[in-house]
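Revision sheet: structure tokens.
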Amino acid sequence: MHLYYAIPEDIDNWMRLVTRVRRNFPGLETDSGLLDYRSMVLKFMGKRQAICVKADNEIVGVMLFSRGHNMICCLAVSQDYRRRGAASALMDEALKNLDRTREISVSTFRAEDEKGRAPRALYEKYGFIPSELIMEMGYPNQKYVLFPEGCEGKARQMAVNCMVRAISEILAPCAPSIYMYGSSVMEDFRLGWSDIDLVVLTEKEINENQAGALLHLRQDLLKENPGNPYYRLFEGGMLSMDMFLKNRPGCAVYWGTSGERICNHYTLDAFCRTQVRESGVHLYGKDIREQIERPAFSELIEGVRRHHETIRDFAHTTGRSLYTFGWMLDIARCICTLRTGKIISKTKAAEWAIENHLCADEEALLYALMVRKNPLHAKADPSVFDFAETLIEPIHRFNESLGKEIQRVLQWGKGFS
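Predicted:
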């Protein structure tokens, strides 16, 4: 067997192999799908992003990769040449062409799909970590990620996978669907500041025994993995879909910063519901987000108003805490949501507010942004906490700007009602 960079003259040979294994390629069931795929391969060949393995002048393995997207796009090996090194040769060559200082991704079949056994084993051999569940060409797949050496994201994803596995085992009889949202999926996670937000929705009601097993799961996993910095960061609710949609009582488990509890009600505010529905990452089970209605903009306005009033009425002093800076970032995000209708990360919202000169105390917002971007470094600097104690007036001035923005939006709404 020999590895080559494929050229247009190889296209018929390439397509003979793909046609034989087309059942492993969702979207290639039809002749039109094969024609579209053929055109795509020719484009990859023109960019030297199509490699193949030949034996006796016949193509027995193929791979497409994208330097621009830093991903592996397609892998196929003839049945007769599997377990003979063809796939590994293709992987080795593709990885030489991709940027190992950034995440490299690939999608493949899910764990329960028999077609996924060989490719999943191959990717895991090369260090890829299973990530979110996705749909491609109407077929259920899963994303795999190869993280850069020493990347914080790899350890976090492994903790997420472990947590999802533990929750799904406890709730297996209830058919859970698990989602992650917030900073972890907005590329804004900062170890030392951020939480890992989960919501678990089940088809059947959670019973008392299952709730008891879930209650201290964070601590149980930490005992098994002492020193892991992620398990204590998981927050969110676990409840039945019926409870979630109809806001009716039942058995729910809540994990928060201050502790955990079993409760008979649990709700997500409009901001969180929007994030779960629009940008949440599907981690386990059936994707049931289409049942979640997108909150009306009026609900987002009401959430912003409550946040504004809480700061106005209860933020009397600031202490020596990094989370003091979070108030500045929260206000920036609220203003951004009111102006754009979008929910973006706190970091991007602060950058947006600075760019648009929306904060009278711009130095304070810049300082908050610096702390947000490197909280572990900030925690070791006493001057950061000194600055935090001076923030009460900048926070209230920025919050006054938020109040004016709320009034503007409400007046605009009345004008078009």
